[in-house]
Each structure stands twice: as C-alpha cells, then as structure tokens.
Write a structure and sequence with these properties.
With about 290 residues, the protein is of the alpha/beta class. It contains ten helices and five strands. β2, α4 (about 100-105) and β3 form a beta-alpha-beta unit.
Length: about 290
C-alpha cells in the first residue's frame, strides 16, 4: 500500500515537472529560439568532444584558461554549467572569486588570480576574472580612473606572460540585449530557484547600461590582442549561445582522441558466508 502511494506521488511529481518544463520550453521557443530537442541533441555531441578534450589534456599535460565576461544576465553561469556538467571537476575547475578581503585589497591586483591559473592537465574557467577592474569596479566607482588606465596598460603584458608560460588563454564576452537582460533579471525576482542570482549590486548596475558599454569598449580597445583576443557571443538565445561557444572553444584546441584500453568489470567476490546483520539503519523517509 505504501509502495503504491509512493509510486503515485512520484508519478505526479514527474508529471508536474514535465508540464512545467514543457511550458518553459514553449515560452522559450515562441520567439524562434532553438528547440529543446535539437539543443539536447547537439549538446550531447559536444559533451562527447569535451570528454575527448579532457582526456587529451590529462595525457599531454596541457594548460587551458577560459575567461567569461559579460553583463549581468548575459548567461555566463549557464554556459559554464553546459561546459562542465559531463566532465571531471578535477580537470575542469571553475573559479568564481568573492569580493576581495582587506588583505587582498592591499596586494598587487593580479596576485589573487595568479594562484588559480591552470597547472599541467587542467582547464580553469573564470566566471568573471581580473577584468572586474575594467568593468564593475570602474562603473560602480570602486576604483579611480587612473588605476583603471594603469590596469588596461598592464593587462596585455600580464596575459602575454601567461601565454608565454604555455597556457592556452581564451576570453569570451557574452553580449545580451537590453530587453533580454531586463526579461532575465525580472525572472529572477519571483523565482525561488534564481533569487540568489539577483544581488543589490545587480540592481544598482542595471541602470548603468551605457556606462558599462563605454567600459566594455575601452576594455576591448586595450586588451584585444593577437595573443589573447576577445571572442564575442550573442546570448539572447541561451541555447544557441552555449552551443556556439562550446563549438568555438573546441576548435581553438588541436586535441586528439586518446587511446583507451577495453574496460571490463572484474568478477565480484563471493560472499564466503557473509550474511547481512540485523542493523537498524536510519533510512531517510521515502516520500517519493
């Protein structure tokens, strides 16, 4: 009886989840966005390639660093999740640093970022990076213009040193339109799953669209170099943006499929008289 009730509850929960997901997909696709089925099909292929890349990076000791920047709501987090959801966190490391401590504020600016750069066999993804100084810190008045100008002068030199050390450095800017940014930020206000994404800083930043545009333009002019160029992705359609970015990223790396020996599960040992003891395990409640 209990099992039947649990089964019905689980079926009801799954049905509700499917209905909610279908409604969200229909709303997403109403404006011509990529359909979920097509997106999942293409993403599955790309995930397979990311695993190939991962194994090659481990085998060859390659060092890769990916920087993601863009306005609030541009889709950086979702893109990073799409890249990393089927690979090993021991190889693909995500770096999303909090606000600097008082001690870190007294350090050389790049000092807090350098320890997070990849070692051999690692792919490090920065969810925002040292470019905070050229963006939010500048626009929101956390640093003065002279400091920003000095930063923009030094960045190409620091990135040249990073690349010369053997790191493959890729920088992506996700570009979202004003209307789409508004839609996404409004969607976070009432959604309990997304409210953590909406900080007081996001609200203060929202009104300064053109200040951010000017800051972005200055940043591109100063730091779009031959050794570390900026790649821009339109992200109003999140699904297309994710597929395009992953596809582009894979094409920048000359990886090859590694050889793998055939894997077979070994024979499981015999019980040799073992009997499950009458232990009163504290099982969690089976609500579903």
């Amino acid at each position: 009886m209990r099992a039947n009730g649990a089964a019905r509850a689980l079926a009801k929960a799954r049905s509700k989840a499917r209905t909610s997901k279908q409604a969200a997909d229909q709303a997403h696709e109403a404006d011509g966005s990529l359909k979920r089925k097509e997106y999942d099909k293409e993403l599955r292929k790309l995930h397979g390639e990311l695993v190939k890349l991962q194994e090659w990076v481990k085998q060859e000791g390659i060092k890769i660093c990916i920087v993601f920047e863009g306005r609030d709501g541009a889709g950086k987090g979702g893109t990073i999740k799409a890249i990393t959801e089927r690979v090993s966190p021991r190889v693909f490391r995500i770096v999303a640093l909090p606000a600097p401590t008082e001690r870190e504020k007294s350090q050389m600016y790049f000092q807090r970022y350098i320890p997070h750069l990849p070692a051999a066999g690692e792919i490090v993804i920065f969810d925002r990076s040292w470019y905070n100084r050229a963006g939010v810190e500048r626009v929101m008045g956390f640093t003065d213009e002279e400091t920003v100008k000095r930063f923009l002068t030094l960045v190409p030199l620091v990135e040249k040193a990073i690349v010369d050390s053997g790191v493959i450095l890729l920088k992506y800017w996700l570009e979202v339109s004003p209307d789409e940014q508004t839609r996404r930020l409004e969607g976070r206000i009432e959604d309990a799953r997304k409210i953590w994404k909406l900080s007081p800083m996001d609200l203060r930043s929202y009104s300064r669209w053109y200040d951010y545009s000017r800051a972005r333009d200055d940043m591109f002019r100063a730091t779009d170099t031959s050794w570390a160029p900026w790649f821009v992705a339109r992200s109003d359609d999140k699904r297309r943006a994710r597929l395009n970015i992953i596809s582009h990223f894979l094409k920048q790396i000359p990886y090859k499929a590694t050889r793998r020996e055939k894997v077979e599960l070994p024979e499981r040992q015999k019980a040799k008289g073992y009997v499950e003891p009458p232990i009163a395990f504290k099982f969690i409640p089976e609500k579903f």
